[in-house]
Amino acid sequence: MTLKIDFEALKTLSPAEIKPIQVLDEQGKVVAPELFPDLSDERLVELFKKMLWSRILDERSTKLNRQGRLGFFAPTAGEEASQIASEFAMQKEDFLLPAYRDVPQLVMHGLPLEKAFLWSRGHVLGNQYPDDLVALPPQIIIGAQYVQAAGVALGLKKKGSPNVAYTYTGDGGTSQGDFYEGINFAGAFQVPAIFVVQNNGYAISVPRTVQTAAKTLAQKGIAAGIPGLQVDGMDALAVYTVMSEARKYSAAGNGPVLIETLTYRFGPHTLSGDDPHRYRTANEENEWLQKDPLIRFRTYLDAKGLWSKEQEEDFTAQVNEEITEAMKKAEQAPKQKISEYLKNVFVETPQALEEQIAKFVAKEEE
Amino acid sequence: MAKTTMIKAINQALEEELKRDKNVLVFGEDVGQNGGVFRATDGLQAKVGKEQVFDTPLAESGIGGLALGLALTGFRPIPEIQFFGFVFEVMDEIAAQISRTHFRLGGTRKMPVTIRAPFGGGVHTPELHSDSLEGLVAQTPGLKVVIPSDPYDAKGLLIAAIRSDDPIVFLEHMKLYRSFKQEVPAEAYTVPLDKAAVKREGHDVTLITYGYMVHESLRAADELAKEGIEAEVVDLRTISPLDEETILASVKRTHRVVLVQEAQRQAGVNGQVAALIAEKGILELEAPIGRVDAPDTPYPFSEAEESWLPNKNDIVTKVKEIVNF
Ligand SMILES: Cc1ncc(C[n+]2csc(CCOP(=O)(O)OP(=O)(O)O)c2C)c(N)n1
Question: How much is the pLDDT for A246?
Fold first, then answer.
């Protein structure tokens, strides 16, 4: 197996040597041709479209939330390269363990959009996944998905599966015990797991520098004996290369990989009352806006004659239509029944619950 | 006296205690510059400085360990768990370590820790933000568990908790943070940690409750009064250990009880209160003990909260059943 990245060397790298990998610079110029991903022009356009889709979804979700039509929503604008390009490098049968902000990856992985909306609104149908969707619903408990990914990956290994488990947390998540336990277990058992840390600089209001005295989050892999690397998380091509190379390495039986993406959320932490201006400066926000992952990728594709304004307009209209349809479907979901909930607590319903079930059945028939 | 919301009353209590005693420390996720996700700690860091009010890395177990360590070195820590649903991450520190230290060291060391956390349903949060997990800590010996139901009590109980040398879990129902205002003295005062409050007097039936359900119970009592049923409403305030005196005295006056909690039937503290009454007050009863609670499922998906959570109507129905028994 030949790889563009020497993962073995990363296991013992000194923290000072960790530098973010970049392929496209902010002007959309290729700066590391040797790391350019193995993607056809068509696939490059497809990747861009998925990122644009995610941006449009973010904008619409924000509006839908304000209209009271969506429930919980954690904005994703700014993180498209980190989220979408990493998912784009994975296979449909790979096991995705997302966090609350990773809804775009879930939909890319196969979750019908109306189900993503139902999850946000708080409807159980949003969590009833199609059989061929290899994923868990978004995790609310920070870091929990890391230990679980180690377990899923061990399961895959024991079954001789060619697939990997991949999971995401934020920079804040790397402070949890579960983070360390997850990467350590994965290393100890040498399982096919890819751990992505989306470092957007803040855990709600707490900056990365308050989170840890470590210079990078990637270096945390070293203590677990697993390769850790850092990538420009606003550069879709770099994220794609790193993720697909890591996948090859891990799926070949070499153990887990830890990837830190340097990214930024343009919006608030969630739409439940967070005000980023309490803890971020407008200057900092503007600086990051210049690094918008869509701009640099668009510039690159445009220069190659692969993308145009008209294409973008058509595609945008199409996505908006798709979102409208999905929202309508979500709004037509039947009202949830507590009696059904009670029946779903156990596979075999104990007699002690029957009185409660009867009570709610009667109420629901009223 | 000025009218104040519960969240402001809590903020005032913290400010007064931070200023009164430099050993009082407030810490947790986002409690510093951001002032907490609900703004309970708003402005505190600016007023007393980062030595006393500070953000921690995102790790609840770490926060619990920090609290234990700081308490052992002479401080009075007030850690915040951002939402009580995340208590599982710090359960070892709370239930297996902090709660036992005084006992474990034969009474030679103190654990003056006040763990604050929001909890409670009906506000459409994602998973594990709204769960009523108070039963878990209420069943842990060595902890006092306090749940205020109004701004006055919140301030007085919180100050009492901070000044207490025992570890206290102080739970704040999210729905009560800003739902109404009440007269609250500007200066510091305490409300005793071992006393329930009779929030409404009555002679036909006793409603024993705590947290947000105090308000549903008071509403139910208003409605019942129109039909000539006078319900007494007892607010437990400290749900562990229970104020047995107040509970039994009320049962003795009314001879009928309905226990009301937001937690699931098998959770919360209704079971403990029922056992107490069965043990020490059964001969006073003229009807079975009534219970109003949530069904035994995990906390529901938010679109179904309204039909899952117990409410005034459930209380009225149950009271009539018990009164007409
Ligand atoms: C165990 C746990 N503790 C606290 C929270 C509350 N909380 C939700 S998101 C968040 C910050 C997470 O920051 P980070 O891991 O950097 O991810 P980001 O949101 O920036 O993507 C916190 C403290 C939670 N959901 N789970």
Answer: 98
Query: Is the CB of A208 inside a 6 Å radius of any atom of ligand 1?
Result: no
A265 in catalytic set: yes
Residue A366 pLDDT class (50, 70, 90 cuts):
confident
- Region A277-299: mean pLDDT is 97
CB A84 within 8 Å of CB A199: no
Those residues whose C-beta lies under 8 Å from the C-beta of residue A286, and which sit 6 or more positions away, are: none
Calculate the alpha carbon distances from A358 to A73, A185, B260 in Å. 35, 45, 20
pLDDT tens digits, B43-73: 999 999 999 999 999 999 999 999 999 999 9
- pLDDT level of residue A16 (50, 70, 90 thresholds): confident
Contact A336, A124 (CB under 8 A): yes
Q: Answer for the pair B12, B4: CB distance below 8 angstroms, yes or no.
A: yes
DSSP code for B171: E
Please give the Cα distance from B46 to A183 (Å, whole number).
38
Contact B55 A206 (CB under 8 A): yes
> What H or E segment, with its residue span, contains residue A262?
strand A257-262
Nearest to B296 among A203, A205, A353 (CB): A353
Structure tokens at B164: 């207490």
pTM for the predicted model, two decimal places: 0.97
CB-CB neighbors (< 8 A) of B61 in chain A: 177
With a 6 A CB cut-off, is B29 part of the ligand 1 pocket? yes
The pLDDT of residue A154 is 98
Establish whether residue B58 lines the binding site of ligand 1, counting it when its CB lies within 6 angstroms of any ligand atom: yes
Q: Give the strand order in the sheet containing B257-264.
A: B197-200, B231-235, B205-209, B257-264, B290-294
Average pLDDT, chain A: 97
Q: Rounded to whole angstroms, how far apart are CA atoms A196 and A218?
A: 9
| Cβ contacts of B299 on chain A, cutoff 8 Å | none
